[in-house]
Design goal:
This protein is mainly alpha-helical. 67% of the residues lie in helices and 0% in strands. The mean pLDDT is 92. The chain starts with 11 loop residues before the first helix and ends with a helix.
Length: 209
Protein backbone atom coordinates (compact mmCIF):
# COMPACT_ATOMS: atom_id res chain seq x y z
CA UNK A 1 0.00 0.00 0.00
CA UNK A 2 1.33 3.39 -0.98
CA UNK A 3 2.28 5.91 1.71
CA UNK A 4 1.26 8.67 -0.68
CA UNK A 5 -1.72 7.42 -2.73
CA UNK A 6 -2.17 10.90 -4.17
CA UNK A 7 0.96 10.26 -6.26
CA UNK A 8 -0.20 7.00 -7.82
CA UNK A 9 -2.03 8.44 -10.83
CA UNK A 10 0.40 11.20 -11.78
CA UNK A 11 2.20 11.11 -15.10
CA UNK A 12 5.96 11.26 -15.56
CA UNK A 13 6.07 15.02 -16.09
CA UNK A 14 4.11 15.64 -12.90
CA UNK A 15 6.27 13.22 -10.89
CA UNK A 16 9.46 14.87 -12.13
CA UNK A 17 8.13 18.28 -11.16
CA UNK A 18 7.38 17.00 -7.63
CA UNK A 19 10.79 15.33 -7.33
CA UNK A 20 12.52 18.63 -8.10
CA UNK A 21 10.64 20.49 -5.36
CA UNK A 22 11.47 20.42 -1.63
CA UNK A 23 9.80 17.58 0.25
CA UNK A 24 6.56 18.61 2.00
CA UNK A 25 6.95 19.93 5.53
CA UNK A 26 6.35 17.43 8.33
CA UNK A 27 7.08 14.53 5.98
CA UNK A 28 9.98 12.09 6.03
CA UNK A 29 11.97 13.44 3.07
CA UNK A 30 13.65 10.12 2.25
CA UNK A 31 10.38 8.17 2.32
CA UNK A 32 8.65 10.82 0.21
CA UNK A 33 11.39 10.95 -2.41
CA UNK A 34 11.63 7.14 -2.42
CA UNK A 35 8.01 6.87 -3.43
CA UNK A 36 8.33 9.57 -6.08
CA UNK A 37 11.54 8.02 -7.44
CA UNK A 38 10.04 4.54 -7.52
CA UNK A 39 7.02 5.81 -9.46
CA UNK A 40 9.32 7.66 -11.86
CA UNK A 41 11.36 4.48 -12.41
CA UNK A 42 8.23 2.47 -13.20
CA UNK A 43 7.44 4.90 -16.03
CA UNK A 44 10.00 3.16 -18.22
CA UNK A 45 13.08 4.32 -20.09
CA UNK A 46 12.42 8.06 -19.81
CA UNK A 47 11.90 7.80 -16.06
CA UNK A 48 15.07 5.78 -15.55
CA UNK A 49 17.08 8.22 -17.65
CA UNK A 50 15.78 11.11 -15.58
CA UNK A 51 16.88 9.46 -12.32
CA UNK A 52 20.35 8.71 -13.66
CA UNK A 53 20.72 12.28 -14.86
CA UNK A 54 19.73 13.59 -11.42
CA UNK A 55 22.36 11.61 -9.50
CA UNK A 56 25.10 14.25 -9.52
CA UNK A 57 22.82 17.13 -8.53
CA UNK A 58 20.55 15.39 -6.01
CA UNK A 59 20.66 16.21 -2.32
CA UNK A 60 21.24 13.41 0.19
CA UNK A 61 17.57 12.45 0.61
CA UNK A 62 16.98 12.52 -3.15
CA UNK A 63 20.10 10.47 -3.86
CA UNK A 64 19.08 7.86 -1.29
CA UNK A 65 15.74 7.64 -3.05
CA UNK A 66 17.30 7.32 -6.49
CA UNK A 67 19.57 4.48 -5.41
CA UNK A 68 16.59 2.76 -3.81
CA UNK A 69 14.45 3.08 -6.94
CA UNK A 70 17.15 1.95 -9.37
CA UNK A 71 17.71 -1.20 -7.30
CA UNK A 72 14.01 -1.85 -6.76
CA UNK A 73 12.70 -1.61 -10.31
CA UNK A 74 13.64 -4.41 -12.77
CA UNK A 75 16.58 -3.41 -14.94
CA UNK A 76 14.79 -3.35 -18.27
CA UNK A 77 16.32 -0.11 -19.42
CA UNK A 78 19.40 1.17 -21.30
CA UNK A 79 21.56 1.11 -18.17
CA UNK A 80 22.95 -2.34 -17.51
CA UNK A 81 23.10 -4.06 -14.15
CA UNK A 82 26.89 -3.81 -14.26
CA UNK A 83 26.63 -0.01 -14.48
CA UNK A 84 24.31 0.05 -11.49
CA UNK A 85 26.59 -2.27 -9.52
CA UNK A 86 29.60 -0.06 -10.28
CA UNK A 87 27.63 3.00 -9.19
CA UNK A 88 26.65 1.39 -5.89
CA UNK A 89 30.16 0.10 -5.17
CA UNK A 90 31.56 3.58 -5.79
CA UNK A 91 29.11 4.99 -3.24
CA UNK A 92 30.50 2.65 -0.59
CA UNK A 93 33.28 5.25 -0.27
CA UNK A 94 31.00 8.27 0.00
CA UNK A 95 31.53 10.70 2.87
CA UNK A 96 27.81 10.70 3.72
CA UNK A 97 26.94 7.73 5.96
CA UNK A 98 23.32 7.60 4.80
CA UNK A 99 24.44 7.27 1.19
CA UNK A 100 26.84 4.46 2.12
CA UNK A 101 24.00 2.75 3.99
CA UNK A 102 21.69 3.08 1.00
CA UNK A 103 24.34 1.72 -1.35
CA UNK A 104 24.77 -1.37 0.83
CA UNK A 105 21.02 -1.91 1.17
CA UNK A 106 20.59 -1.50 -2.59
CA UNK A 107 23.32 -4.05 -3.26
CA UNK A 108 21.56 -6.52 -0.99
CA UNK A 109 18.21 -5.87 -2.70
CA UNK A 110 19.79 -6.65 -6.06
CA UNK A 111 20.82 -10.00 -4.63
CA UNK A 112 24.05 -10.22 -6.58
CA UNK A 113 26.60 -12.42 -4.84
CA UNK A 114 30.05 -11.01 -5.36
CA UNK A 115 33.15 -9.70 -3.64
CA UNK A 116 32.41 -9.37 0.08
CA UNK A 117 35.48 -7.34 1.00
CA UNK A 118 34.20 -3.83 0.15
CA UNK A 119 31.11 -4.32 2.30
CA UNK A 120 32.73 -6.21 5.18
CA UNK A 121 35.36 -3.48 5.38
CA UNK A 122 32.54 -1.20 6.57
CA UNK A 123 31.56 -3.28 9.58
CA UNK A 124 33.77 -0.97 11.69
CA UNK A 125 32.42 2.24 10.12
CA UNK A 126 31.85 5.12 12.54
CA UNK A 127 28.15 5.35 11.62
CA UNK A 128 25.74 2.91 13.27
CA UNK A 129 23.54 3.17 10.19
CA UNK A 130 26.33 1.85 7.98
CA UNK A 131 27.22 -0.91 10.44
CA UNK A 132 23.56 -1.92 10.57
CA UNK A 133 23.31 -2.07 6.78
CA UNK A 134 26.28 -4.47 6.73
CA UNK A 135 24.29 -6.77 9.02
CA UNK A 136 21.26 -6.65 6.73
CA UNK A 137 23.48 -7.34 3.72
CA UNK A 138 25.06 -10.38 5.34
CA UNK A 139 21.77 -11.83 6.53
CA UNK A 140 20.12 -11.43 3.13
CA UNK A 141 22.95 -12.56 0.87
CA UNK A 142 25.26 -14.66 3.05
CA UNK A 143 23.01 -16.19 5.74
CA UNK A 144 25.42 -19.07 6.29
CA UNK A 145 28.11 -16.56 7.36
CA UNK A 146 25.89 -14.05 9.14
CA UNK A 147 25.31 -15.69 12.53
CA UNK A 148 28.72 -14.96 14.17
CA UNK A 149 28.66 -11.35 12.95
CA UNK A 150 25.12 -10.78 14.22
CA UNK A 151 25.88 -12.28 17.62
CA UNK A 152 29.02 -10.16 17.94
CA UNK A 153 27.02 -7.05 17.00
CA UNK A 154 24.64 -7.58 19.93
CA UNK A 155 27.46 -6.02 21.98
CA UNK A 156 27.88 -2.94 19.78
CA UNK A 157 28.15 0.30 21.75
CA UNK A 158 25.31 1.87 19.72
CA UNK A 159 21.74 0.73 20.34
CA UNK A 160 20.88 1.13 16.63
CA UNK A 161 23.30 -1.65 15.72
CA UNK A 162 22.20 -3.86 18.61
CA UNK A 163 18.58 -3.40 17.55
CA UNK A 164 19.44 -4.27 13.94
CA UNK A 165 21.40 -7.34 15.00
CA UNK A 166 18.46 -8.54 17.08
CA UNK A 167 16.07 -7.95 14.17
CA UNK A 168 18.26 -9.84 11.72
CA UNK A 169 18.68 -12.81 14.07
CA UNK A 170 14.93 -13.26 13.95
CA UNK A 171 14.92 -13.01 10.17
CA UNK A 172 17.75 -15.54 10.01
CA UNK A 173 15.52 -18.08 11.80
CA UNK A 174 18.42 -19.89 13.48
CA UNK A 175 17.37 -21.23 16.88
CA UNK A 176 20.99 -21.17 18.11
CA UNK A 177 20.51 -17.43 18.54
CA UNK A 178 17.88 -17.85 21.29
CA UNK A 179 20.31 -17.85 24.27
CA UNK A 180 22.01 -14.71 22.99
CA UNK A 181 18.70 -12.91 22.55
CA UNK A 182 17.61 -14.00 26.03
CA UNK A 183 20.82 -12.53 27.42
CA UNK A 184 20.14 -9.31 25.51
CA UNK A 185 16.68 -9.14 27.08
CA UNK A 186 18.23 -9.44 30.54
CA UNK A 187 21.09 -6.99 30.13
CA UNK A 188 20.19 -4.33 27.55
CA UNK A 189 18.48 -1.26 28.96
CA UNK A 190 17.36 0.31 25.69
CA UNK A 191 13.64 -0.29 25.02
CA UNK A 192 14.04 -0.50 21.23
CA UNK A 193 16.69 -3.21 21.57
CA UNK A 194 14.59 -5.18 24.03
CA UNK A 195 11.53 -4.93 21.78
CA UNK A 196 13.55 -6.19 18.78
CA UNK A 197 14.96 -9.03 20.86
CA UNK A 198 11.51 -10.06 22.05
CA UNK A 199 10.09 -10.02 18.52
CA UNK A 200 12.94 -12.20 17.29
CA UNK A 201 12.55 -14.55 20.24
CA UNK A 202 8.89 -14.97 19.33
CA UNK A 203 9.86 -15.82 15.75
CA UNK A 204 12.56 -18.27 16.80
CA UNK A 205 10.33 -19.92 19.39
CA UNK A 206 7.82 -20.64 16.64
CA UNK A 207 10.61 -22.00 14.42
CA UNK A 208 11.85 -24.27 17.23
CA UNK A 209 8.40 -25.86 17.75
Amino acid sequence: MSFYPELDHLNLEQLIRIFQLPAPENEDAVLFYQEVSYLIATQGEMGIKFLWNEIDKANTAQLQAILFALAEVPLEHPFSQSELLNLLVNYLHDKRPLIVMEAIDSLSRLGVIGNLKPVLALREHSSPYVRSSVLRFMRRLYPEKALPLLIESLNDHDYIVRESAADELGELEVVEAIPFLNSLMEKDTHPDVREAAQTSLDILSAVAC
